[in-house]
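Case study: UPF0391 membrane protein DAI18_10080.
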Amino acid sequence: MFRWGVIFLIVALVAAALGFGGLAGTAAYAAKIVFVVGLILFVLSLFSRRG
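Here is what the predicted structure looks like once written out:
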């Protein structure tokens, strides 16, 4: 999951550098969502192994 978040972040940075504002915003938003979902799944997996 974190790999996809980093990939979307890199796409957003490249798109912003090239002047594609809409694409950069969309990729940054997708990176943020993927990162949060990955973080939530990581925390859930930590708690499920302790029980």
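For the exam, be able to explain this: The chain has a mean pLDDT of 84.
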